[in-house]
Write a structure and sequence with these properties.
alpha/beta; 426 residues; 13 strands
Amino acid sequence: MVDIDDAAIAVIGLGYVGLPVAVEFGKQRPVVGFDIRRERIEELQRGHDATREVEPLGLQAAELVEYTDDPDALRKCGIFIVTVPTPIDRAKRPDLTPLIRATETVAKVISRGAIVIFESTVYPGCTREVCGAIIERLSGLKLNESFFLGYSPERANPGDKEHRLTTIVKVTSGSTPAAADAVDRLYGSIVVRGTHKASSIEVAEAAKVIENTQRDLNIALMNELSIIFNRLGIDTLEVLAAAGTKWNFLPFRPGLVGGHCIGVDPYYLTHRAQEAGYHPEVILAGRRINDRMGAHVADQVSRLMMKRGLPVVGSRILVMGLTFKENCPDIRNTKVVDIVSELQQFNAAVDIFDPWVSSEESRHEYGLDCLAEPPEPGSYDGVIVAVGHRQFIEMGVDAIRDLGSPDAVLYDVKGVFPKGTTDGRL
């Protein structure tokens, strides 16, 4: 096995997860930051991170990072950390294509004794059964004899400046006890908060998928309660505030569940469960509820408009916010697009305004244009605050209401404004 303290590190995939990893290690030792997107490499070489996860000063501090899209640059490395996305397809099945391609890239340049660590979210067993097999087949090396595996799940939370790579506990694991020790020591060199060494790779893989599955189910419960209380004419957030006075009540709230983790990871676990002959009921029920919430919001807005005599067909509606969460530019798997799609099916003209998102990116991902500037006041029949960006909160509810006509409906998905100042909220 390579010397964990001296070997150069390669980080494969420089997105929300990979770049912070490359930067932290690059403050201490040589790192090759690899990404297949040439524009991403050029951007980082200029000292700019479009994800806003690493500030320019942070990039400057990582003096030992070499950014490249040339696979041959990886040959000098003895440790490989794979941090590529693991999405789902249209049928909500795991799409391992990026992971397989990244593993194939590593397999073509790996040398004896190397350690390959995966941070991408996968189902239990995937690291050994899929990634390990690819490396053996393409490299001719033997797992646990001439190369070793590790798994250390990412816990990235885009836009969160408090819970960072170095300040949260890092789960680690390895394909042998010695590999597990090496992986744990490696991450322990940058993670101030400490590490948790799991007993096996499969335990670490399972821990990752249930972290977000647990949150998904709790939010699904809140969403279902919100639907019930809406029909009963009861304000959900007031109910939660009252229930929250009990010492062990969990402070979850209803909302749109998108992004690269919570809305995706449960499907990796359910896929594996079904392969094992078990059909998960609770997990998939929660997913169905959360996947319907965009349509539910559109339905609520439409009903409020019709009560005011505002026809939805031919109306103009402004959706404020496109990202999957507040104060970050990440639009991956955002459920705001479900609101937009549903309203468009009602033949409403929908505009989107999000100061965190470029129209080029939204057009590329979803075929949607974003307004480049804040809209003119008095232009809309309905206004939906879909994401609680700080810019929207700073605008204030009165300024946002002025964007609509005098009779326009204002719907606050996140409940960021006080009750009574808007016409509806989850």
